[in-house]
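Can anyone check this?
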Amino acid sequence: MSCESRASQLVGSTPTGAVRRLSLATRRCLQQIINEGVPTAVVVGVSGGPDSLALLVVATDLCRRWNIPVAGVYVDHHIRPESSNEARHVYDVVQSVGAHPAIVDADMEAYREGGPEARARSARRDALVRYATQWARESGTTAATILLGHTMDDQAETVMLRLARGSGAHSLSAMRRRDLMECGGVAITWLRPLLDQRRVDTHQVCRDLKLAWVDDPTNAVDGPWRASDGSALRRAAVRQWALPALERALGVDPIPALARSADMLGEDDAYLSAQAGDLFDACVRESEGARDGRSSEAEGVRGAERGQVDACEQSEDNDSARGKASRGRGRHWIVDCTKLADLAAPIRRRVLHRLLAQVSNSPGSVSSVHVRQLDEMALSGAHGTRIDVPGGHARAERSGPRRSMRRLIVERVE
């Protein structure tokens, strides 16, 4: 292909209107990646809707001008009979604008928990990660950037959905502009360049550039997918009913304000999470197993006098033998409740959330209910209390001289 792809011809050297706004937003995000100095391969997730098609064109224009390998990927969930035709349409569009086209399958059977939206999202994410890893290797680099076409409207919908669940700052900060992960030795960056742009602009770009998009019926309240109770999918209901009703009630468009709230909460959460990360090791220790039970009470006392909370020391409660046996089965974590109690509540709960995410190996399975239960147990100091947590269980103990040392033992169930 020539250096000037069809995408560059469509966008033009001096774009105007909605095309210019989306192009500049995408340029800002990609420029940050380029400035970091590690060559990256770009993958654009393309569903065929106007948001992802508009992003595909402006991203392909930039990548071709900057000599960055760019692929447009359609993830086929094989749920709707028309998905194969949509996949072929997207493949042709991606190829026509100058990006490398690909269709990948989503393994929906691998996900059993949650509603259809959550399962499809998880399967789609894994499919994009697999392809991005492969695309980076084929492009001769160890970094990949996945671009997603979420807009300000999507962000506002997410905030509303999470407000209804009673979420905290971390969850209400909703979708991040940038997330990082690693897969198979490839550093993967997730970017959402259009979070400051409106959905009406992506539609306008597609109309201006004469891009035929696909209307996903699952976005409609009367679409083929339903919630478990038979009602409309929650996001579709928020989009078509809740947000318009809120606009009528307030007399102003609520979407920019909801998105601003997500931005501010994201900044607050990033700061508090960094503080919690710095303090995590001071409060939590991890151990791979327990000793064989031959340690003496005196040894445990010496450890307590040294100010240590050792996973292997002998417990002084009546079920110490059972405790040591269970601890020897798998990984467990020891929380110093005295140090934990000295932390401010927002920091303390983030420390516990981080701990539970490690225990479960799945941050998404940890809810505020789990964190608050563990927090209450840590602060109460109730000896012998036991609760289940995602991926394992936790119990409260007192140890050391006169049982002065309070701690939690959190064990992963293998």
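Reply from J.R.: I decoded it. The mean pLDDT is 88.
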